């Protein structure tokens, strides 16, 4: 591990059984029951596959991508629910906006996971405190759990987030990387799928410690350029940078009150600082926005949101603020408010870049 990696602090946040957790959150009667997200085989849809499932269902051996007919045979009492992507995307957007508040270096990699570069923190003690704050914030705002991995590189953070699932937090300091990786199955390295794992196993390579015994040329011969990535990641070496996805769609911020608020003056103060915050972040990227969205969450987790698209793109703080106030006036129902947020979107201008896992070797 090089000197730059030793100075970095990278977070990987992975939502726990995301689709199933959202469904169980909204339907309390499903708590602690085996829930499968996928077509119901009892309704003649036996050719589908499991999208995800609750941890209770996993105890029966049910896994993602398993045929739903197999899942039903293993656990006839499973509750099958159809995929509700509009709901999952909405919750995902809320979670990602929470994460963006902690670092300008943010990279969403799927609907339920993201990286943060937190190298601005003083040390791993501060990182641990921040990790728990993130977990508590998501639990408070969205009533679902996540697992957090913290380490000196993206690959270590990714592996660490899976280490104590569900609802876990694992820290791997630079000096502990080699010992942490050694006993883990080789398949824990991102990019090693079932076929590659079977090929490794046929050659007696079961753990990451076993993988380290292989020289780089033999791995390249067997697996092509991914063999080089395996070699380096088995040693914890990964200098990919956390980067915003190309074409960021929105910038937002929200605040949750310790007690529900009925005083509109308090809410207006929140509106003021939120607008200033999101305007600053937009300006730093050289963006101009066209759409302003206000979201209000009332007691009982009842959400209301409304958007306004302008006739032009703007980088004016006063214009964003005035439109947010107008939307709030139209939206507010004169009821106690639990949380309040503003999002701007419809950007033009700015520059960004996306780094994929396949770029790993070129960035070494």
From TrEMBL:
| Domain UmuC: from-to ranges | 10-193
A GO CC annotation given for this chain: cytoplasm
**From which domain of life does this come?**
Archaea
So which cofactors does this thing need?
Mg(2+)
**What does the UniProt cofactor note say?**
Binds 2 magnesium ions per subunit.
The GO terms describing molecular function are: damaged DNA binding; DNA-directed DNA polymerase activity; magnesium ion binding
Quickly give the catalysed reaction.
DNA(n) + a 2'-deoxyribonucleoside 5'-triphosphate = DNA(n+1) + diphosphate
Where is this gene product found? Answer: Cytoplasm
Q: Which GO terms describe its biological process?
A: DNA repair; DNA-templated DNA replication; error-prone translesion synthesis
UniProt-annotated site: Substrate discrimination, residues:
19
Which residues does the annotation say bind Mg(2+)? 14, 112
State which Enzyme Commission number(s) the record gives. 2.7.7.7
Q: Which UniProt keywords apply?
A: Cytoplasm, DNA damage, DNA repair, DNA replication, DNA-binding, DNA-directed DNA polymerase, Magnesium, Metal-binding, Mutator protein, Nucleotidyltransferase, Transferase
Tell me the SUPFAM superfamilies matching this sequence.
DNA/RNA polymerases, Lesion bypass DNA polymerase (Y-family), little finger domain
Active site, per annotation:
113
Q: Summarize subunit and interaction data from the UniProt record for this chain.
A: Monomer.
The role this protein plays is: Poorly processive, error-prone DNA polymerase involved in untargeted mutagenesis. Copies undamaged DNA at stalled replication forks, which arise in vivo from mismatched or misaligned primer ends. These misaligned primers can be extended by PolIV. Exhibits no 3'-5' exonuclease (proofreading) activity. May be involved in translesional synthesis.
Q: Which PANTHER family match?
A: DNA POLYMERASE KAPPA (PTHR11076:SF33), DNA REPAIR POLYMERASE UMUC / TRANSFERASE FAMILY MEMBER (PTHR11076)
Kindly give the NCBIfam families that the UniProt entry links to this protein: PRK02406.1
Task: Give the UniProt family note.
Answer: Belongs to the DNA polymerase type-Y family.
Q: What is this protein called?
A: DNA polymerase IV
Q: Which gene encodes it?
A: dbh
């Amino acid at each position: 591990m090089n000197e730059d990696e030793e100075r970095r602090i990278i977070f990987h946040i992975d939502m726990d059984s995301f689709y199933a957790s959202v469904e169980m959150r909204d339907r309390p009667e499903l708590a602690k029951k085996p829930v499968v997200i996928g077509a119901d085989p009892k309704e003649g849809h036996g050719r589908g596959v499991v999208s995800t499932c609750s941890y209770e269902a996993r105890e029966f051996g049910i896994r993602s991508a398993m045929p739903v007919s197999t899942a039903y045979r293993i656990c006839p009492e499973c509750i099958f629910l159809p995929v509700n992507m509009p709901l999952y995307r909405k919750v995902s957007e809320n979670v990602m906006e929470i994460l963006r508040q902690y670092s300008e270096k943010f990279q969403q990699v799927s609907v339920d996971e993201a990286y943060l570069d937190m190298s601005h923190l003083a040390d791993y003690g501060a990182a641990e405190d921040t990790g728990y704050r993130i977990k508590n914030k998501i639990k408070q705002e969205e009533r679902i759990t996540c697992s957090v991995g913290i380490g000196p590189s993206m690959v270590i953070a990714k592996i660490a987030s899976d280490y104590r699932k569900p609802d876990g937090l694992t820290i791997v300091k630079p000096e502990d990387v080699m010992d942490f990786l050694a006993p883990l199955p080789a398949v824990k390295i991102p990019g090693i799928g079932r076929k590659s794992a079977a090929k490794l196993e046929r050659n007696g390579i079961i753990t990451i410690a076993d993988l380290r015994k292989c020289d780089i040329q033999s791995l390249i011969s067997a697996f092509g350029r991914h063999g080089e990535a395996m070699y380096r990641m088995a040693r914890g070496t990964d200098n990919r940078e956390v980067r915003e996805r190309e074409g960021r769609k929105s910038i937002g911020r929200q605040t949750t009150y310790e007690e529900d608020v009925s005083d509109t003056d308090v809410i207006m103060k929140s509106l003021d600082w939120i607008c200033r915050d999101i305007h600053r972040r937009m300006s730093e990227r050289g963006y101009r926005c066209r759409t302003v969205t206000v979201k209000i969450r009332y007691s009982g987790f009842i959400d209301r949101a409304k958007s306004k698209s302008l006739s032009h793109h703007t980088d004016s703080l006063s214009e964003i603020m005035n439109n947010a106030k107008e939307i709030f006036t139209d939206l507010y129902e004169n009821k106690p408010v639990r949380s309040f947020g503003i999002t701007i979107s419809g950007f033009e201008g700015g520059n960004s870049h996306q780094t994929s896992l396949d770029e790993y070797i070129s960035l070494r």
